[in-house]
Amino acid sequence: MVANNSTRIFSVTLRVWRQSGPGQPGKFVDYPAPQVSPDMSFLELLDVVNDGLTLTGEEPIAFAHDCREGICGTCSCTINGKPHGPGKGVATCQVYMRSFRDGDVIVVEPFRAKAFPLVKDLVTDREAFDKIQQAGGFISVRTGAAPDANSIPVPKDDADLAMDAAACIGCGACVAACKNASAMLFVAAKVSHLGLMPQGQPERDRRVLAMVQTMDEAGFGNCANQYECSAVCPKLISHDFIARMNRDYVSALFRENFKPASNATGGGA
Ligand code: FES
Known about the structure:
Blueprint: E1 10-19, E2 26-36, H1 42-55, E3 78-79, E4 82-83, E5 105-109, E6 118-120, E7 123-124, H2 127-136, H3 156-166, H4 173-177, H5 184-195, H6 204-217, H7 228-232, H8 240-258
Parallel strand pairs: 1-5
Antiparallel strand pairs: 1-2, 3-4, 3-5, 6-7
Helix pairs in contact: 2-5, 2-6, 3-5, 5-6, 5-8, 6-8
């Protein structure tokens, strides 16, 4: 029976990956959840299950969360084989129990990728994304009086596209969904949202080269061109940005290798 009535209380079983730490053996453990409201969020259900575990002296399930509003990208786990679970364009914290049925067994596991080592239970270390950002996900500006925003015209189409790319919350679902654990959708979004803006042009070449190199060094795989990444992205980032990044990368590589001696600082396309 579908739990589509907001007053209906139903039961599910959570089958959760438990692992006490890196390198430790892990296994799935079943936790019955008998008092589920369709209006509960998935994280609220985990809270309730953890309350029960705490009361019985068991170790609560470790899971990452922060904003619980689909903004921060912290709440990353795989639900029933899909990063962020059922629904489209939502993060785990925006999944509601009305998406499930009475009697369901819901399998919950961490994002699995070599570059996202497991910390505990459902928590993974996604510092690799921070390193990619640190390699080039910024623009360098002079400090002092900021120029008037209207003094730098930006074409509407470019502004819209840059905003689409900037919506990436860095959750890592793209990596978890890809059979190659590729981070190209994440990197493409970060490269593109700055590369589309006038302020991002002076460092455009250096940015894409450094971010792609850092991505490769972190152990992410190559794009398989199957687009599971954009299919599970909670912000619906388009895989078209990957093609844009590839064009930027090839152009930057060409200029890097064939730049004239008088143009030693490089520049944007
Ligand atoms: S907790 Fe911030 S996006 Fe889910």
